[in-house]
Amino acid sequence: MAELTAQLVSVDRMLWSGPASIVTAQTIEGEIGVLPGHEPFLGQLKENGVVTIRPISGDRIVAAVQGGFLSVQGDKVTVLADYAIFADEVDSAEAESGLEAQDEDVKHRSEAELAAVRRNESR
To answer: What CATH number is attached to the domain comprising 42?
Structure first.
């Protein structure tokens, strides 16, 4: 079975790296799903998006991302985000309160975190 080598990286840490069957991400042009054999691609991530990775073994990985890029070269997929957090690391109460913040970056981050939590719960 063909597989991807996927990496999810934020500015401050490597969140995940390993073999995957599919990676989906929200870009400024829409949602993209990357399977083995995908054409080379470079896309800008949506400001308050969600990335989902299906590892070859293990549970689906869902993360909130804010800004950054998705790169596909051969069977290697790299998601490089300005900010990223796993859905199961999100404090939902804190994210909900962030929606009321005056700072637009905080609002966008909270929107992305809550979207990731919802997607993670919809398994």
So the answer is: 2.60.15.10
